[in-house]
Amino acid sequence: MNPPDPDLGNAVRDFQKGGWIVAILGALGMIARMIFDDEKRPLVVWIKKIFAGAICGVLMYFALHGTSIDPLYKSILYSTCGALAPELFEKQVYQRIKNIWKK
Fold first, then answer.
1. What integer pLDDT is reported at residue 2 of this predicted model?
2. Residue 89 to residues 39, 43, 48: CA-CA distances in angstroms?
3. 11: which residues sit within 8 A by CB, 6+ positions away?
4. 8-state DSSP, 2
5. Which residue has the higher pLDDT, 98 or 80?
6. Are 26 and 57 in contact (CB under 8 A)?
7. CA distances from residue 86 to 8, 18, 58, 69, 92 in whole angstroms, order as listed
8. Is 91 helix (H, G, I), strand (E, B) or coil?
9. Fewest C-beta in 10 Å: which of 34, 56, 68, 79?
10. What are the tens digits of pLDDT across the range 8-24?
11. What pTM was estimated for this model as a whole?
12. How far apart are CA 19 and CA 74, in angstroms?
């Protein structure tokens, strides 16, 4: 198995050509999750979570860039990452704060 292409410049060029769609996939994953959720939230919360989903999708794009995974599986990973973005970010932040206070 070959390691992923370490050239970040190449990854950025690929992202500009068409990789930006992963931000949309991540955001759509979050939108789908929030639509099926019965909890009412203000518009600001919707916007924050959708942006978090988009950012997480982009991070996943750079993590998977250059790997030999079927594009269908990659798109599933992008949207799943977007749907789970709040838990990924919030859990990490809260754990780090707890670790700081324990020391």
1. 55
2. 20, 20, 12
3. 5, 19, 62, 65, 66
4. P
5. 80
6. yes
7. 26, 25, 15, 25, 10
8. helix
9. 68
10. 777 788 777 877 787 88
11. 0.69
12. 12
User: Do the beta carbons of residue 56 and residue 82 sit within 8 Å?
Assistant: yes
| 97: its two tokens | 């704060």
Q: How many residues does the chain have?
A: 103
Neighbours of 35 (CB within 10 A): 7
- The dihedral sign for the CA sequence 62, 63, 67, 72: negative
Q: What is the mean pLDDT of residues 28-39?
A: 83
Torsion 80-84-85-91 (CA) sign: negative
Tell me the CA distances in angstroms from 50 to 17, 47, 98, one per residue in order.
23, 5, 26
